[in-house]
């Protein structure tokens, strides 16, 4: 998993803790995204999946918020499918600005993988940045539909 360098790696102790127990690798979310892309590529070349939180931060109200285009960039440039995933209950367990989780039911729901070949075919029709935004919007809609399906069942 990639984690924000400025959040998870503020001190040597934090860095050790999150690397050791959560296998989080540092990503500079405010600077050079190219190094993050390289790091993501290395993780996947070693056969490990990559977990990305496309909102860029924890929700301040428990709702799904718009996604950043970086997830689209990774999908297109690395040529890997993106699997929509809805994680519910974490806001109740560990809301923003809290440091210790409380007991709560947490559920994880996966959607169908998004094949990047269909999106990559659109590169002749639009800019890369626009395509990245389109992918992140499509992913957002799919995640929200997972939430809608789980609340109706």
Features:
globular; 153 residues; mainly alpha; 46% helix
How would you summarize what this structure contains?
With about 150 residues, the protein is mostly helical.
Please state how the strands of the largest beta sheet are arranged side by side. 1-2
Number of helices: 7
Question: Can you tell me the residue ranges where pLDDT is under 50 for at least 5 consecutive residues?
Answer: none
Structural class comes to mainly alpha
Helix content: 40-55%
Total separate domains: 2
Cα-atom Rg, whole angstroms? Answer: 16 Å
Shape: globular
Roughly what fraction of the amino acids lie in strands?
Answer: 5-15%
Nearest-integer average pLDDT: 87
> What is the CA–CA distance across the termini?
30 Å
Q: Give a count of the beta strands, DSSP E runs of length 2 or more.
A: 4
Describe this structure in words.
The chain has 153 residues and is mainly α. The chain folds into two domains: 1-51, no CATH class; 56-153, no CATH class. It is 46% helix and 9% strand. It is built from seven helices and four strands; from the N terminus they run βααβααβαβαα. The chain has helices at residues 5-8, 12-22, 33-45, 70-78, 90-93, 116-120, 128-152; strands spanning 2-4, 25-27, 85-88, 107-110. The strands form two sheets. It has a two-stranded parallel ribbon with strand order 1-2. It starts with a strand and ends with a helix. The mean pLDDT is 87.
Describe the secondary-structure layout.
Elements: E1 2-4, H1 5-8, H2 12-22, E2 25-27, H3 33-45, H4 70-78, E3 85-88, H5 90-93, E4 107-110, H6 116-120, H7 128-152
Parallel strand pairs: 1-2
Antiparallel strand pairs: 3-4
